[in-house]
Amino acid sequence: MIRVTRVAVVLLFSLTLGCVPMPPKPEQTQLQIREFQTRTYETKDTKMVMKAVMHTLQDDGYIIKDANLDLGLLTAQKELDVTNQGEALLLSLLAGHKARYKKNALMEASVNVSEFGKEMRV
């Protein structure tokens, strides 16, 4: 009888702790997001870095729409065939859009390559 009571108390206590809502994550500023997405490379060769970024995007299925070496700007996009509603909702949330179900999704990417001292920031 004591053992059953202990199990019931432990179960009730663990259920109570498991249902406590997590505090909401504070929203990040655009500057914090950009800093998280930025990578630095030890080179001053802008052309090489731009080509490496282009190759990476193309390997991932993106089509390069615009590349401007002088500005260090690259834009690309790819179409995705979405097979289920959950995948479509996840993609739209990752892209920062309101969740909608679509059969096709268009993913866009823009990259900025700039000199920073003796390094390149992407």
What does it look like?
With 122 residues, this protein is α+β, with helices and mostly antiparallel strands. It has helices at residues 2-18, 30-37, 46-59, 85-94, and strands at 40-41, 63-68, 73-81, 104-112, 114-116, 119-121. The chain has one domain (28-121): TATA-Binding Protein (2-Layer Sandwich). A 3-stranded antiparallel beta sheet has the order 1-6-5, with no helix packed on it. A 3-stranded antiparallel beta sheet has the order 2-3-4. It starts with a helix and ends with a strand.
Topology of this protein?
Elements: H1 2-18, H2 30-37, E1 40-41, H3 46-59, E2 63-68, E3 73-81, H4 85-94, E4 104-112, E5 114-116, E6 119-121
Beta strand count: 6
Strand content: 25-35%
| Order of helix and strand elements from N to C terminus | HHEHEEHEEE
Net shape? flat
Distance between the termini: 66 Å
CATH fold-type name: TATA-Binding Protein
Helix content: 40-55%
Output the radius of gyration.
Answer: 23 Å
Structural class determined from secondary elements: alpha+beta
Overall pLDDT: 77
Q: What is the CATH first-level class name?
A: Alpha Beta
Main pleated-sheet profile: 3 strands, antiparallel
- Provide the domain count: 1
Strand order of the largest sheet: 1-6-5
Low-pLDDT segments, ≥5 res: none
Count the helices. How many?
A: 4
